[in-house]
Amino acid sequence: MSNALFFLVLLLTPSFLLFLQFTFCSFPLLDFTNEWPIGVTNGVVSSGIPSGMDLSIGDSNISELVAEIKPRYHIAGSAGVYYDREPYANIGAVHVTRFIALAPVGNKDKQKFIHALSPTPASKMSASELCTKPPNTTLSPYSLEKEIGSGNGATKRSGESVSDSQYWRYDVSKRLKHGDGAGDRLCFKFVSSGSCQRGDKCHFRHDEDAREQSLRGVCFEFLNKGKCERGPDCTYKHELQEEGKALSGKRSGSGTGSSNRSKECWFCLSSPNLESHLITSVGEHCYCALAKGPLVQDHVLIIPIEHLPNTLFLPPECEKDLSKLRGSLQACFKRQGKEVVFFEWVSKRGTHANLQVVPIPSSKASSVEQIFNLAAKKLGFTFATLKNDNYMEARKSLGMHLNRNQSLFYVEVPGGTILSHAVEENENFPFQFGREVLAGLLNMADKADWRNCQLSKDEEAEMAEKFKRQFKEYDPNS
């Protein structure tokens, strides 16, 4: 076969679409989505639109994604028709995008359901070739969609009724924070990852409360519209979680607050929310548990028993426990031909600390530092590098330079080098940065979001028992 590409439309999850936004390539060649982007027919010659086509169909999340990643080709399905749109210009990029919709396989009207392309990689194209715009090129349909959305509001999307008893409730000033008419729609990228590279220029709402609800498993469509069209088929929650408590923005007194915090925390041993079947080793001050929705099979967490905000300011006894578990895990995985990556997100909000432990094939160990540096460059920052043969001293040094009013991400790569980045107040930093980078390294883009990797309780328990058996001879607490 030549270099032609033959493809059928693929159904991709929102988290994988999010991962595309984080890809290390400046602009992807192809973007496959099941849903059409809303507004894709804006600005086209009407004679080219399939007859009887409902122009209101589409998903605003897909529109936002495609406008962000600017693929050269966007292939979609779900509308049941074949449609080859006129190419359109991208904002902030010199190349055009071609949108192609494919009909269902074996459709009765015999419309095209398979398509062939022979694209030339951008790296092999001259600047003039990449900038070439066919005579029928239109403006970006998504910039036109924003202009339409900033009108008088007559074309409001269905499902945004505030009468729904479970509708996400915000005051007007908060809903219009980002303006431009689309201000009452949530930004999918921000809610899913905790950051959006467009910052204040984003036309969608960056809402911390919605972000926290999403982390608790609430459906994005429910948060955005007040309902979810997938209904019982949706795997996410369709009601607000712990409303009026953790999300109220109020802090209780030290005694009652500590008690409530332990009850709500996923990691406190006294919490009813603790999934104890994932615990694999318990020491006097720290315990070890398999990660919920693991990136790899033996993805584990080292967690202090006391509800502490991070592992950089642990009491001496707790630090010793953590160090023992760390060394034991390294030895266990070394025997399996694996190296270990440790990383932690230190939030200034002070959640229960957990040190992520991800084993990777030894063959990929030399690439870890490079890929994290590439990811940092993509987000516009440079890691601070700390090298010290004494692990305890290195952690102490890292803690000494931590401003407790800032958040911090750090990762220990194979070989002992620690890369760290202090996150500024208004900086858009992905909440799952460490996991997303490792998912890319391991070619597991679909696992960048832990919620896509959830297993049944029986599967988790079986996996935990298997890990306990292989870790038994190394476990300092056995």
From TrEMBL:
UniProt zinc finger (C3H1-type) residues: 181-209, 213-241
Keywords of this entry: Metal-binding, Signal, Zinc, Zinc-finger
InterPro entries named among the record's database cross-references: Cwf19-like (IPR040194), Cwf19-like_C_dom-1 (IPR006768), Cwf19-like_C_dom-2 (IPR006767), HIT-like_sf (IPR036265), Znf_CCCH (IPR000571), Znf_CCCH_sf (IPR036855)
GO cellular component: a single term: post-mRNA release spliceosomal complex
Coiled-coil residue windows: none
Domain C3H1-type: 181-209, 213-241
Gene Ontology terms: biological process: mRNA splicing, via spliceosome
Source organism, top-level taxon: Eukaryota
GO molecular function: RNA lariat debranching enzyme activator activity; zinc ion binding
Pfam families according to UniProt: CwfJ_C_1, CwfJ_C_2
Position of the signal peptide: 1-19
Protein name per the record: C3H1-type domain-containing protein
Organism of origin: Salvia splendens (Scarlet sage)
